[in-house]
Each structure stands twice: as structure tokens, then as C-alpha cells.
Design brief:
Rossmann fold, 247 residues, seven-stranded parallel sheet, alpha/beta
């Protein structure tokens, strides 16, 4: 626990559960004040349970036009600044490409890609003005490999990587880094349900490490990218997939 985030303000989306909550906990344990964002009514309870003091919860639908600007403004009003943004909110609406509805396609893009863009844009404006910032976008192994029934999901996560690279070029001179993290299946509450039984066992066989990732492992990688130690890392897509994409 050598990395410290004392004095840093971290804005984490999708923070009511899963990877987002693991990230919020990881950063709070190391001294960050966390601004948690989620649409879930469980957010207040999750935020109250974080280690440390001074955390702030914002219930918001990030797909609504103008929501990102409002969320960042509230975060700044409540804490004074935003040093770190972690875009963890996302959805997986699966179907065969020939059957996927336009509604599912649009809903996937709205949250996974567009909301991540608008949040990064809103936070990036004030970060570049201040001359410091760390932005980490949750992508997926689906950003670099194709997965059955994941056409919308794969597309949205590949878009995250392209967005990350483009923003990194523009913002590096202002002291702002932006990176993507791409996990394999993660054993969150939802992940355990979605990949239970034989489906999950078959998937594990495709991962050289022979298991799924833990939320805390993903949070640790994000914690590194959010730290001062990662000041020369930007525009990258770091895979945490047990070797899945290497084969």
C-alpha cells in the first residue's frame, strides 16, 4: 500500500457495485476522497461504506444529455477539484449480430462509449486547465478480440480504446494522462451469475491462467494508472486477461 492518494479527489462512475465499487474502495483505502456516481439507489449506502471521510455520492443517468457536465460541476463544488476520473459505468446487452435490436445497440453505445466520452471531456476541461489529471477508461478484452453475441459490446469497447488514444495525444502536454484497462471476465456479483455453470468453466479453459479476474486485481491496475508513478503512461490499453488475448 505504498501508493498514496492523500489530497486527491477521485470521481468514479458505476461505483455502486462491481469493478466501480472495488476501484472506489481501493482509492479510498489509500487516502483519496471519492465522488461516487451511479444510477443505482444503492449508491448512498456503498459510498457511506467507503474507508475514510469526505466522500460524496451523485445519483445520475450519464446517458442523459448534459449529465456529465453537471456531475463534474457538482464534484468540483463538493470537493474543490477532480484529480482522477475512472469511467467504470457500463452495460452488456448481448445477442447475435443478425438479431441484435437497434435499441440494444444504441443503449450500449450511449452508456459504454458516449457517456465515457462526455465524462472524460467534462473532467478533461478542468484537468487541462489545472495542469494535472488521471483518466482511466474501462474497456475489455472485447476491445481487442471478437466474442460471440458481443457485437455491440465489442464495438463500444474498441471505441473506448480509440477515444483514449486520441485524447492522450491532445492532453499529455497539459499533464493529463488517459489510459484504458481491459479485463477478461471479472468475478463481480453480476459476473458470477452471468458466467455460472458450464458456460463459465468453458470460458476459463480459454484463459491460460485458468481463472477469471478478481475486482481487486482490476482496481489495483487502475490504482497504478491513477498514481503519480504512472506519469509517463498514457494512450495505452492495458490488458488484464490472464493471457486470453495472447493466444
Amino acid at each position: 500500500m505504498s501508493t498514496t492518494f492523500s489530497g486527491r479527489i477521485a470521481l468514479v462512475t458505476g461505483a455502486a457495485s462491481g469493478i466501480g465499487l472495488a476501484v472506489a474502495t481501493h482509492l479510498a483505502e489509500r487516502g483519496a476522497r471519492v465522488v461516487s456516481v451511479d444510477i443505482s439507489d444503492r449508491l448512498a449506502e456503498a459510498t457511506d461504506g467507503l474507508p475514510g471521510e469526505g466522500h460524496h455520492a451523485i445519483v445520475a443517468d450519464l446517458t442523459r444529455e448534459g449529465a456529465a457536465t453537471e456531475v463534474v460541476a457538482e464534484a468540483v463544488d463538493a470537493t474543490g477539484q477532480v484529480d482522477i476520473l475512472v469511467n467504470s459505468a457500463g452495460v452488456a446487452l448481448l445477442d447475435k449480430a443478425v438479431d441484435l435490436s437497434l435499441d440494444k445497440w444504441n443503449a450500449t453505445m450511449a452508456l459504454n462509449l458516449t457517456a465515457s466520452f462526455t465524462m472524460a471531456q467534462a473532467a478533461g476541461r478542468q484537468m487541462t486547465e489545472r495542469g494535472y489529471g488521471r483518466i482511466i477508461n474501462l474497456a475489455s478484452q472485447a476491445s481487442v478480440v471478437g466474442l460471440d453475441q458481443h457485437v455491440a459490446y465489442c464495438t463500444s469497447k474498441a471505441g473506448i480504446v480509440g477515444m483514449t488514444k486520441a485524447m492522450s495525444l491532445e492532453w499529455a502536454p497539459a499533464g493529463v494522462t488517459i489510459n484504458a484497462v481491459s479485463p477478461t471476465v471479472v468475478e463481480t456479483e453480476l459476473g458470477k451469475k452471468a458466467w455460472a455453470g458450464q458456460k463459465g468453466e468453458d470460458m476459463k479453459k480459454l484463459i491460460p491462467a485458468g481463472r477469471f479476474a478478481q475486482p481487486e486485481e482490476v482496481a489495483a491496475m487502475i490504482g497504478y494508472l491513477a498514481s503519480d508513478d504512472a506519469g509517463m503512461v498514457t494512450g495505452e490499453n492495458l490488458l488484464i486477461d490472464g493471457g486470453y488475448s495472447a493466444v
